[in-house]
Structures are given as structure tokens and as C-alpha cells.
Amino acid sequence: MALRSGSSVIVAAPTGTGKTLIAEKLLADVLTKEKGVIYTSPIKALSNQKYRDFGALFGRDKVGLITGDLSINERAPVLVMTTEIFRNWCFAQPDELQNISHVIFDEMHYLDDPDRGTVWEESIIFAPLHLRLLGLSATIPNIYEIAAWIKEVRHDEVKVIVEKKRAVPLKTNWIGHHGNILTAAEAQAEIKAQSDARKERYREE
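and the corresponding C-alpha cells:
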């Protein structure tokens, strides 16, 4: 509802909890309005995968792919590209974004990356102000600070959605001294046994 009302949205949720479904619903909604959407990802392999997924879902004629190596159907209403390509468009080809209503940033936690974070920062700062943003990530520790920053630099309402419950609960095991899988209790017992053995050797010395 927030995206439909014109707000930008940042979603932090574990893998398998429906972040991709949010993006797909947005794409479907925008396509009915004869507007365009850009889906950005941090790596070419993920861009290629999303191009195939969205092509299967919406039709190959509706989806394009632009990376440093490929340019396929670049006039399509759904464009998948690396974040660097989108950043470059903001600087060099802003006219190409006039009919785009939303940009989706997959793996938005890259904002905190010391080497590539500036690409995400510049993309957000210099994206035309009519664009609404959807940021997706499994984890963004400072999500509320990022939302406040986006609101400040873009004068845009930003909604935050945080889901902490995992679709598949994590199960922790340990690898023992001989490569065997241990439960936490077994691991603690083995660690204690090894520690006691070392103490005994020290006493003997």
C-alpha cells in the first residue's frame, strides 16, 4: 500500500520471507499503468538471473537487461541492470528515466560496503526526484538511519518494513576434532575434555 500511495519503502527480511514477491507485485502494478521499473542488483550474475525470472513471469518482450557486457531489449518497461549502470544513467542519461516510476535496489545493505557503497549513495542522491525507491535486503542494521537519510536527501516519505522471523529456522551444529558433526552440548563436552587434557599435560610437565 505504501508503494501505491507514492512512498518509498525499505524492506529488511530474512531470505525466503517474500522480498522478491514484493518486487514482483510492484512490477505487475506498474506495468498496468504503462510505466517502467528499473531493478538493480550488485552483480552481473544476479542481474542475469533476475532477467530470466522476470522474463518467464511477465514475458520476454516486457523485460530488458543492461550490464557492462550485455544490452538486451533496453526499451522494455522492466529493465534489469547493475547498480553501477543505473548510477551512470542518473548522470549521463537522465532523460531515459522520464517514464520510469520506480527503482528497486536489491541487496541494499551494499550501502555500507566500504568499496562500493558510494555507488548506492550516488544512485539514491542523484536519481530523478519523481522516482520512488524500493530497497530490499536480508539485513540492514541501521535501516532507520538510512530511511531518515533518504527522506532528507530526496524529500521523500520512506516506510520501513522489518521482518525478523525466518521462514526456515537456523540450526546450529559444530564440527568436531575428527570432522564429525556435533550438537552444541556435545561440542561443549568435547571442548571441556580437550581443555582438561591440556591442563593435565601441563601438570605433568
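(Above: one complete record from the training split.) The mean pLDDT is 87.
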